[in-house]
Amino acid sequence: MKFADAAKVIDNYEGSELAKKERNDCSVRAFAGVLDVRYELAHSFVKDRFDRKEKQGVTSMPTICEKMAEEDETYSIDGVNFKVKSLTKEDITNEYKLKGEIFTRKKTVKSFVKSHQSGSYLVFVSGHVFTVKDGTVIDNGSEEYRPTRKVLAACKIEVEDNQMELF
């Protein structure tokens, strides 16, 4: 499983005064990482769209992302236009057969990444959200060695092509 430290991937994260003052900002880092935008711009979007309070997480983020997917609107952060798409239950679960009986269980982070090698995703685990982008987990450096966490929900982030069509 490929891993990238969010602090090193996110534009201006280590130089951001706002990032230095924040805590519980995984939702901000997830959006900054999935869209390749500056930390401050992702912070502003998450604050406005998810009603995030300073130094507090967004516990309702999976539900709000689901509503955003249903609305099928285009959102924008610093000129990066994107849509949020829901994933099916099959995308976040595995089926196992034991003694002729089929069981469905939540995927681990490792199995989710293995089955989602292309595309950009926000992945929700207990009390935390991070980015999976083209098979690479973008998260806190301390989370690298926790591939067995269960995926509770996930959504796909589809960046729209910003080029104008001439004909």
Could you explain how this protein is built, in words?
- With 167 residues, the protein is of the alpha+beta class.
- The protein has one domain.
- The chain is 32% helix and 29% strand.
- The chain is built from seven helices and nine strands; from the N terminus they run βαααααββαββαββββ.
- Strands 1-8-7-6-9-3-2 form a seven-stranded mixed sheet.
- The radius of gyration is 16 Å and the shape is globular.
- It starts with a strand and ends in an 8-residue tail after the last strand.
- The mean pLDDT is 92.
List keywords for this structure.
167 residues, alpha+beta, 7-stranded mixed β-sheet, two-stranded antiparallel sheet, 7 helices
Helix content estimate: 25-40%
Order of helices and strands: EHHHHHEEHEEHEEEE
Integer count of domains: 1
Q: Give the CA-based shape.
A: globular
**How many angstroms separate the termini?**
42 Å
Please give the largest β-sheet.
7 strands, mixed
Structure summarized in a few sentences:
By secondary structure, this protein is α+β, with helices and mostly antiparallel strands. It contains 7 helices and 9 strands, in the order βαααααββαββαββββ. β6 and β7 form a beta hairpin.
